């Protein structure tokens, strides 16, 4: 049995590749169902954000399951797929990776808090769909706890920025200041709300919000004293805007060259800046080729957040130490899962025989007092414990090593733990996660 992650992120693939592997909330359950139903996959979780798509799995049969997973990725990618965009980590490397993800050390913006909620959401979806078991439940609960611990015990999140605040900083860098700028926000979700908040905090006097659901646009605009416009007026307003920041969940371009391009002459040479922080992208990249239009996508925020990385380098090092501590603790915990089924069956069998013999003995000694019966039963438990102590110690000592399978085999044979017709415990079998 093997624990793995197959994925890509902002470090390994540009946005035009990542958007092929993006999954909306509505698509996630079906995609997860398809992947978890592959032969050899026993547990599964799918984490999809604007900067990463990762599939975590416990494989009963890695030789069968891994090629099937890679084939599924190839189908999603299309004919011009570059395998170098994906990473494939297993065992301890997989654990270290998800801990770093939860701690936001692997984020575009180190210290941002959104990833922890996204990880919780991915875990909830997988658990409610029945796709997780002992290994992933243990791993995800620990990863979430690690994320919280890093944020509590280090200053990595102190004055942290986010993708939305980085987009606003980019707008300030372009425009100089926001008080006189005409700003159009497209989308009314969480990221758009964060963007609007940062715009107002950084000096914007008002914003215009447009969304397919006009009620959502009105609700967001009212929060910040802005104006909501119907979606059908989006392109008309675009001719007046200085900057458009867009973050929708649309699976296609929202601002296209065909619709926006013909309207550009009405701007009479005034520059238009489009900041696209959506994945899949909202803005047609061909617009960047048109005179007077500058397009920035989420990958262009890299330069904006360089200072963030330098400021948090020391805190990241402290977080790395915490993560290594947590990896050691988790490995120790999971290590004993692999020998526990044999221990349970051995204990249950000995307990079964002990109680059977006690019942026969008490039947031959009907005159025993309650105190005498209690002392005999207590003696039998201590004797059972003494007999089991050395085999249990020996099995614990080889847990997670190359000798483990041999020890389990011999104990099972000596004590006939797999004898047909005997049921001394129904503990699920848990193999080595590494």
List keywords for this structure.
single chain, 434 residues, alpha/beta, Beta Polymerase, domain 2, Rossmann fold, 6-stranded parallel sheet, 4-stranded antiparallel sheet, 16 helices, 50% helix, disordered C terminus
Topology:
Elements: E1 2-9, H1 15-18, H2 28-36, E2 41-48, E3 52-59, H3 62-77, E4 87-90, H4 91-102, H5 114-128, H6 134-153, H7 163-175, E5 183-186, H8 190-201, E6 208-210, H9 214-223, E7 227-229, H10 234-238, E8 243-246, H11 257-260, E9 272-276, E10 293-297, H12 306-311, H13 313-337, H14 340-364, H15 370-398, H16 404-414
Helix pairs in contact: 4-6, 4-13, 5-6, 6-13, 7-8, 14-15, 15-16
Q: How does this structure look, described?
A:
The chain is α/β, with parallel strands linked by helices. It folds into three domains: 2-159, Beta Polymerase, domain 2 (2-Layer Sandwich); 163-305, NAD(P)-binding Rossmann-like Domain (Rossmann fold); 336-414, no CATH class. It is built from 16 helices and ten strands. It has helices at residues 15-18, 28-36, 62-77, 91-102, 114-128, 134-153, 163-175, 190-201, 214-223, 234-238, 257-260, 306-311, 313-337, 340-364, 370-398, 404-414, and strands at residues 2-9, 41-48, 52-59, 87-90, 183-186, 208-210, 227-229, 243-246, 272-276, 293-297. A six-stranded parallel beta sheet has the order 7-6-5-8-9-10. A four-stranded antiparallel beta sheet has the order 2-3-1-4, with helices on both faces. A hairpin with a 3-residue loop joins strand 2 and strand 3. The longest helix has 29 residues, at 370-398. It is elongated and about 105 Å long. The relative contact order is 0.10. Mean pLDDT is 85; it is low at 419-434.
